[in-house]
Design goal:
The protein is mostly helical. The chain has ten helices and no strands. The longest helix has 43 residues. The protein is 67% helix and 0% strand.
Length: 230
Amino acid sequence: DGEFRRVCDLYDPHVEGRVRYDHFSKTFEGVHRILPMSRFVRHKSFPWRTLARVWDALSSLFTDDYHRIYLIFVLWIGMGVTWGIIDQGWDPITATHFAVSALATGGLTAPPVDPDTGILPAGPALFCGFYCLFGIPLMALTLGIFARVLVEGYIVEEELAAIARPLTQAEFAFASKSLCSRDDALHLSDYIVLQLMRQGKLNVGSFEFMKRQYRMLDQRGSWLRGVGPD
């Protein structure tokens, strides 16, 4: 009941018995994902549904942080390909090879040097330096995010499997006597800390440090009595 009243007060601050759009849009964080689709909700025909999905996918390129990284990376590669075609006169395949290999630090395709001096001309040298200076970190960031997306499902399955695995007698004895409580019973706090340790997200050293910090911040024991920090 308390949580329900809190939500009602949040979205209906004037107690009107209804949720006004202006209060909802200022409070609800996911409204930017609802708005692109809302204009097509009333249309049930195939073309409008398809248009809604396309619009949502395109708008997410500018609103979603991960999608924005992918968009910037594709545009950066496109800049390298365009430069190779226009400035160097390469064909699209060679220009694409340059754009990707330069960011991969392979550098297998490069602008030709001056035949007399053996030095790269100023224009191509400046562009390649600028292109690699910002493009290499961008490529590393994009590949890191993409790799995390690929393994995210596997990590979630591993975590769920670790949580569902039955407790052993040794784990029960350790959690009930060495973690949050000392009464030989396994409390919820003990169980949560144990599960974090099983998943490798918390070790004994970090946990002991947290307990010391808790005791230092709550020397008067007021937190145990439901009194918040001063």
